[in-house]
Amino acid sequence: MASSMLSGTENFTLIRGITPNGLGLVRSNLNGKPFTKLSFTSNGKKNLTFRSKSTTFVPKCSASSARPSSQPRFIQNKKEAFWFYRFLSIVYDHVINPGHWTEDMRDDALEPADLNNRNMLVVDVGGGTGFTTLGIVKHVDAKNVTILDQSPHQLAKAKEKEPLKDCKIIEGDAENLPFRTDYADRYVSAGSIEYWPDPQRGIREAYRVLKLGGKACIIGPVYPTFWLSRFFADMWMLFPKEEEYIEWFEKAGFKKVELKRIGPKWYRGVRRHGLIMGCSVTGVKPASGDSPLELPPKVEEVEKKESPFAFLTRLILGSLAGLYYVLVPIYMWLKNLVVPKGMPI
């Protein structure tokens, strides 16, 4: 699997006289030579700084393409997401994960979460079928892990997994977690933020439920640069920009915010099509209590009168947009076989 800290398509300002040629994969460059592993860190400004032990690069441009402020996002709604996963849960582990969220990717993405104590309390928010939780229980006793999701159909799949039989499995809302303040040592959420109507509120909740010194780890998609992929991404669900993740974490009160790029084996560093699982973002809670970020009370979702036809149309359009991203890894896998090694795809 390839995890990347710098994309080969971006421009960088050289700070210490070391040319970043070929940087695209974590443990090797595009020519197969090793180099220092890099990660994003927040520098308190609107831009991002890329740090390594030997050099620092500051992007001349933003870390990802601009995203329109208003988008249809047919599945970034709890009602649509519920029914979307009602059917997707049947094939999720066998069709979606092999192309977008492999075991190698999962383990690499969870590494920054520092799951280093079997007795720590962990909440897996948006845990779905429990695929990510299987990576968590490698390091933490299952009895100390809680899986939360709004989809009973996804959670039913998690309950079938033998290593998760001792986990607590509950239905709940990522933007209104049923845990007390200062409850958990670690907060993990993978493949969920893209369906949150209000990502900032969800990350604020992550801060609240963590103990002092606890760490949040959110794994999610990254926005594409290729026009057609942007079109389908904007129709389907939320694909945040990398700098948006950083901003949300900082506003919620997190410190030591870092972003690590991840990707499947066919990924060679160029993010033309975006990735459903493209980054792992972590932050540390610096003080006990609630988040310093004040938000207005959550507006309860009120059932609006709409024709079943309108709802079904949105669901179908959103699902078709999602189908595009089922086909992308197949296309990229084939392209990876044809395009000579060392060339970005």
Automatic annotation (TrEMBL):
Select a single GO molecular function from the record's annotations and give it: 2-methyl-6-phytyl-1,4-benzoquinone methyltransferase activity
Per the record's keyword annotation, is Membrane included, yes or no? Answer: yes
**According to the UniProt entry, where is the signal peptide?**
none
Alphabetical list of InterPro entries matching this protein: Methyltransf_11 (IPR013216), MPBQ/MSBQ_MT (IPR044649), SAM-dependent_MTases_sf (IPR029063), SAM_MPBQ_MSBQ_MT (IPR031164)
Q: Where's the MPBQ/MBSQ family SAM-binding methyltransferase profile domain?
A: 73-282
Q: Where are the transmembrane segments?
A: 311-334
PROSITE patterns, A to Z: SAM_MPBQ_MSBQ_MT (PS51734)
GO BP annotations of the record are: alkaloid metabolic process; methylation
| Protein keywords | Membrane, Methyltransferase, S-adenosyl-L-methionine, Transferase, Transmembrane, Transmembrane helix
Task: Please give the residue ranges the record annotates as the region SAM motif II.
Answer: 167-180
- List the residue ranges of the region (SAM motif I): 122-131
Which residue intervals make up region (SAM motif III)? 208-221
Q: Which family does it belong to?
A: Belongs to the class I-like SAM-binding methyltransferase superfamily. MPBQ/MBSQ MT family.
Q: What is the name attached to this protein's record?
A: MPBQ/MBSQ family SAM-binding methyltransferase profile domain-containing protein
Instruction: Print the organism lineage.
Output: Eukaryota, Viridiplantae, Streptophyta, Embryophyta, Tracheophyta
